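Box 3.1 A note on notation
Throughout this textbook, protein chains are presented in two layers. The first layer is the amino acid sequence; the second is a token string describing backbone geometry. Keep the layers aligned when reading.
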Amino acid sequence: MPLRPLMFGEILDGSFQTIRRNAKAMLGAALLAQALGTIVGAVFTAGAGSQGQSLGLWMESLTPTQMAGVGMGLAAAGILLGTVSVVISAVLQGVMVVPVARSVLNWRTGFKQMWSLSRSRIGSLLGLGLLLILATVAVVVVLVGGAVLLADAMGGMAALIIVPLFLGTMVAVLLLYIRLLVAPAAIVVEELGVLDGLRRSWQLTRHNWWRIFGITLVISLLLGIISQIVLVPITLASAGLSSVVAPHSGDDGQVALAVGVGIASIVVSALVGAVAYAFQTSVMGLLYMDLRMRKEGLDLALLRLLEAGGSESGVPGRGIAPTGHAGGTGTGSWPQSPYGPPPGAG
């Protein structure tokens, strides 16, 4: 890909090329991100399909107190699963930036090499994931607690405050999400801690909020449409197959087929999700590199690295101090961004 600030089409093409040239690293890590949910879903589907009637009778025999206990247990399991998934996702987003950054210089990266080059930052990525979880819990507790207190004090009139409050919170979360989007990349490439990585992302995304939001939105819509195009025919085909092969509900053939089709659908969904996850992570990594090129002239430093015949064993951008004013806080030699003033404030 060109060593200069990237256009939208070049980011898309660069993401495809990164996955194609580093398939083992990118798709392998993406499959790890999908593995936990896939295994849990497959086990649940198999258990529910083979023991469906027994589970129904058992649920009917429970007292209200026992039902509440089962519900709390399922909720706790869901929270634990969500927590582990968020932490794994934060780690893998950072780790997968390594092949993305190396692909800028057309360097291939294997699965083992990807983990080797990011190993020192695993602790910081874990900390980032836990911090995101704590922040989410804090926001939910404050919102729900505030809504309950308002409803208790004001009754139905509380909706006039609660609805705008929830909408404002959603907008604030979106603003923060975009501003902190490249924090995992900064943590790994620049070898930063959790707070420094968040601060670095805040600096780099300054004056670029709308551009990053637009790219993220288009990518999300594109991947969502493609995923539905792939998954909807599979769902319809599985339903048609069930009605043809085992038309009498409740017999062993119907149960076995339903379990098989359910597990196959989960596996296919995981594969589609892995490709989408790899692509989104690649876009995030290229956005990070693009922001450094625009604000700090990273492309010029990488060109000098290529001309000097630098080793292909490292991570491009690592060890290269910022030379521009990322977010107006830099101390380097550029009086401003090497490609002119940034676009409209974001």
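Residues 325-337, 341-346 have pLDDT under 50 and may be disordered. The radius of gyration is 24 Å.
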